[in-house]
């Protein structure tokens, strides 16, 4: 089979490799679609704590081609997970998305049901070979059946949808509250979609107007354009935010950019006794006030990957197919993978999710 291997910085080589051996408890999945995110770009640029060469791809969907002999449904045994559909009653021919998290099951986070932050956490396509290959072997318990009405290309976004839902759930939203979502990239937009479903009024902020226009389609009640180098919010924006929050500020802020100043804004703007969830990732340092957090008695939380929420993410996408489709701005064939990364790196176009269509993709 053919694999796209990131062999060194900004270099992909296509190489033939043997088909994977079907291990006990595993399934062979014919990969149909892979979507790319910022982490993929950092790995390709060799600016990520992993080693090259590596087969990338952690957001993907495909069709089950084979099951290990003697496989029996594990009945949803993921520690800490919801058990919804993940690994249950999987059959050959099923359309699936895959949970890429690898965890040890022995460390304290795993034993307390927080395996998404396992002390030895890994991820297919990030720390071990992933889905930019024709056929991949994965544990059956990591397979999530795709709803019948959901196209396989959209199903590849079940993983980022689960990340957005994890961040929202960490924030403990309540119907009738107002949330501020900082960043209207795919994670921020999917968080907005989910928050709106939960009865939360959402204000979205971003530096790009076209993203804010999309945020309205995802349910945002108001949008705030952040102008780099200018005060945020400006006087007019502050008045609107005060009006929508009865002068108290939003009870919940989802920080989905990873920009240090954005976390600083979150702490400054959130209401007293409010909650902040940091899902954007960056190695940069934030200049955080040591006064505001205790004075407001804030809950400041991180969020990473998800606790078996890919089935829920697929259901969210199924309920909102038009918004899901709007996220997908570019498509490339498997042979054009290098071109896809170049586009992400250049930032010369309005980019949402990039879809890599694998050789099997045209057969589904």
Rounded to the nearest angstrom, the distance between the terminal CA atoms is 19 Å
Strand content: 15-25%
Residue ranges: pLDDT <50 for 5 or more in a row? Answer: 74-85
CATH first level of the largest domain: which class?
Alpha Beta
> Oligomeric form of this entry?
single chain
Rg, nearest Å = 20 Å
Number of strand segments: 17
Largest sheet: 7 strands, mixed
Q: What coarse outline follows from CA principal-axis ratios?
A: globular
Report on the architecture of this protein.
The strands form 4 sheets. Strands 3, 4, 5, 8, 9, 16 and 17 form a 7-stranded mixed beta sheet that branches. Helix 12 links the parallel strand 16 (328-333) and strand 17 (353-357). This protein has 364 residues and is of the alpha/beta class. Helix 4 (158-170) crosses helix 5 and helix 4 (158-170) packs across helix 10 (310-319). The chain folds into 2 domains: 2-156 and 320-363, Alpha-Beta Complex (Quinone Oxidoreductase, Chain A, domain 1), CATH 3.90.180.10; 162-302, NAD(P)-binding Rossmann-like Domain (Rossmann fold). The model is unreliable at 74-85 (pLDDT under 50). The longest helix has 13 residues, at 158-170. It has 12 helices and 17 strands.
Provide a brief overview of the structure.
The chain has helices at residues 38-44, 108-111, 152-155, 158-170, 186-197, 209-217, 235-244, 260-269, 292-296, 310-319, 321-327, 337-346; strands spanning 2-8, 11-16, 26-36, 59-67, 95-98, 101-102, 122-123, 135-139, 143-145, 178-182, 201-206, 222-225, 252-255, 275-278, 299-302, 328-333, 353-357. It has 364 residues and is α/β, with parallel strands linked by helices.
């Amino acid at each position: 089979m053919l694999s796209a291997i990131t062999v060194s910085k900004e270099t992909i080589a296509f190489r033939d490799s043997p088909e994977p051996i079907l291990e006990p408890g595993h399934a062979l999945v014919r990969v149909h679609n892979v979507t790319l995110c910022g982490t993929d770009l950092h790995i390709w640029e060799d600016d990520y704590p992993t080693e090259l060469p590596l087969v990338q791809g952690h957001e993907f969907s495909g069709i089950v081609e084979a099951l290990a002999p003697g496989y029996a449904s594990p009945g949803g045994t993921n520690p800490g997970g919801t058990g919804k559909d993940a690994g249950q009653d999987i059959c050959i021919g099923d359309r699936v998305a895959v949970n890429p998290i690898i965890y040890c099951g022995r460390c304290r986070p795993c034993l307390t049901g927080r395996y998404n932050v396992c002390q030895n956490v890994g991820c297919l396509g990030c720390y071990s070979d992933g889905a930019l290959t024709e056929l991949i072997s994965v544990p059956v318990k990591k397979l999530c059946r795709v709803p019948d009405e959901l196209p396989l290309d959209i199903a590849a976004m079940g993983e980022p949808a689960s990340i957005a839902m994890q961040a929202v759930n960490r924030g403990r939203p309540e119907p009738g509250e107002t949330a501020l979502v900082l960043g209207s990239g795919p994670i921020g937009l999917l968080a907005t979609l989910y928050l709106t479903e939960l009865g939360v009024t959402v204000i979205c902020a971003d530096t790009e107007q076209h993203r804010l226009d999309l945020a309205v389609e995802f349910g945002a009640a108001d949008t705030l354009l952040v102008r780099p180098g200018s005060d945020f919010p400006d006087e007019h924006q502050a008045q609107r935010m005060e009006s929508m929050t009865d002068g108290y500020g939003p009870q919940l802020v989802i920080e989905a950019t990873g920009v240090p100043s954005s976390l600083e804004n979150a702490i400054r703007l959130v209401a007293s006794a409010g909650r902040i969830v940091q899902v954007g990732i960056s190695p940069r340092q934030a200049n955080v006030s040591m006064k505001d957090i205790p004075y407001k008695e804030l809950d400041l939380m991180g969020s990473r990957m998800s606790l078996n929420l890919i089935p829920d993410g697929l259901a969210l996408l199924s309920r909102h197919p038009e918004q899901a489709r709007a996220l997908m701005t570019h498509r490339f064939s498997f042979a054009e993978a290098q071109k896809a990364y170049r586009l992400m790196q250049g930032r010369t176009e309005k980019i949402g999710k990039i879809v890599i269509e694998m050789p099997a993709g045209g057969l589904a």
